[in-house]
Design a protein that fits this description.
With 144 residues, the protein is an alpha/beta fold. It is globular, with a radius of gyration of 16 Å.
Amino acid sequence: MNLKVYLSGEIHTDWRQEIMTGAADLNVSFSSPVTDHAASDDCGVAIMGSEDQKFWHDHKGAKLNAMRTRKGIEDADIVVVRFGEKYKQWNAAFDAGYAAALGKSLIVLHGSDHQHALKEVDAAALAVAERPEQVVEMLRYILS
């Protein structure tokens, strides 16, 4: 069995790399959004032309990124959504909701300090982890 795993959520730590490194011996292929913040924010205007107003600048980028995100989530067998410590990730919550609405297997990854704030997201998930290595062990279990 080959698993397709989409890694969504915060981009300020190396949690994705930890999971990919830990799962290197597993039959798993990973995909994710663009994690270079500036490249993600500016993709719309870089391709479709500049905008004078920040709203339209962001609008172009958000729609282009949404196409990439939808494709990644729709193609995935499992979606992992990480909520980081530093910033509120509204896009991560949206991705978790989209994955749940599609009936995707959802793993939510966050620290214990976010348990209350994310209780509804956690309730929609099939598993909740606090550390990337737990996600690796979940994938290992699923494949064994």
